[in-house]
Amino acid sequence: MINSWSLIRLGTILIYLFMFAPVAVVVLLSFNSSQFGSFPMEGLSLRWFVALMDNQAIVRAFQTSLLLGVLTAVISTTLGVLASLAMVRYDFPGKGLIATALIAPILVPEVVLAVALLLFLGAVGMPKSFPLLLAGHVIFTLPFVVLVVQARLVAVKREYEEAAMSLGAGPVETFFQITLPLILPAVLAGGLFAFTISFDDITGTLFWKPGGVETVPTQIFAMLRNSISPEINALGTAMVVITVALPLIGAGVARQLGRKQK
Questions:
Q1: 53, 90, 134, 157: most buried by Cβ count inside 10 Å?
Q2: Quick count: other Cβ atoms within 10 Å of Cβ 75?
Q3: pLDDT averaged over the chain?
């Protein structure tokens, strides 16, 4: 007789198959030599990946996504580290309210956040622009950085910093020489989270981006409205590789840094 754990395992496997089977199909069809994305495949080819590099619209979208992702990661990580230091190391009036405000973008549906920010900036007369798009991505990714860095910073004993300052180090020197190396794995992880979320985001980007500016997700969305091109499969595969590889690389680097600190 099948026990309950076997049913749970079977259900879990079926759920994962349902979730990832479409992704596997897209990756497989991206290597299809035929112009029509259907089975059975006529052969394997890299022609659609070559076509991606010759498509100037897609190249510009990749450049925009990379620039946006890097800027979002740098700004969110910097603000997230500073906010985490303030929340963990200091007590001040309104600390609980600020902590709630920092985490609130995770709790609010992204479409609601996107519309709210767009309406607010429209009310003050600010048009859609790249800085607005960047600000929206920073607002949305900052809570993830704060949560990751705070979790690591709580585990760092205050005595290490106090010992450095008792030996003559100033607050800034103590941070860069003592605190930052200890929380570096979390900082790198938070930055990679911010970059990956920004690179994949489409909901907020559709509301915030100015005309003529496309990121990779919005470019895929625009291409899908016209026709289903094999280039879309190749572009989707490239996005899957980037968004999966980066967290894995980050986890490996963080684990290696953690081992060196022991």
A1: 134
A2: 18
A3: 82
Q: Taking a C-beta distance cutoff of 8 angstroms, is the pair 154, 137 a contact?
A: no
Q: Which residues of 167-177 are buried (b: 16+ CB within 10 A; e: fewer)?
A: eebeeeebbee
Is 22 exposed, middle or buried, given 0-12, 13-18 or 19+ CB atoms closer than 10 A? exposed
Would you say how long the chain is, in residues?
262
What is the Cα 247 distance to its own chain's centre? 9
Q: What is the mean pLDDT of residues 8-33?
A: 82
Please answer whether residues 64 and 213 qualify as being in contact, where contact means their C-beta atoms are separated by less than 8 angstroms.
yes
Tell me: pLDDT of 1 over 60. Answer: no
Q: What are phi and psi of 15, to 5 degrees?
A: -65, -45
| 199 within 8 A of 242, measured Cβ to Cβ | yes
What average pLDDT does range 232-240 have in this prediction? 80
